[in-house]
Amino acid sequence: MLLEQAVDKAILDMPDEFVIKGFLKEHQAEVRDMCITEFNEIETMQMFKKEGKEDHLISQVCRKLRKGKDVKQIADELEEDENRVKVICDAAKEFAPDYDENKVIGAISQNALGM
Fold it and tell me: Is the predicted pLDDT of residue 61 greater than 70, yes or no?
């Protein structure tokens, strides 16, 4: 069931003795839109949280590259998958020797978007 349908069904299935039912039915379209917006905000916040973790990992990898560490050492120290660390290291090579974290994050983001 789609979210819109679920909101409509919840309002219709609400017991008649619930005082708020009349209000919700009268403003059903607005209630539906608010629920969808709230649902999308939760998904968006989860996406930002995931991106933040990825950016943090990229920053950590860049710091370790500045110290001359290789892919295996970095993966071991960060307890991350070696292939994942290699992808970051490969993207970071372009920005050696300073490994500017923001530039590496930008490059990886562009690659992920297929640009």
Answer: yes
Nearest to 72 by CA among 58, 56, 90, 86: 86
Name 71's Cβ contacts closer than 8 Å, sequence gap at least 6: 82, 85, 86, 89
Is pLDDT at 93 greater than 70 in this prediction?
yes
Q: Is the entire prediction scored with pTM above 0.70? A: no
- Copy the structure tokens of residue 93: 């090579």
Helix (H, G, I), strand (E, B) or coil at 68: coil
Q: How far apart are CA 35 and CA 1, in angstroms?
A: 15
Pair of tokens at residue 106: 């930008």
Alpha carbon distance 67, 70 (integer Å): 9
Segment 6-14 long-range contacts (CB within 8 Å, at least 24 positions apart): 7/31, 7/32, 7/35, 7/36, 8/32
Average pLDDT, the chain: 88
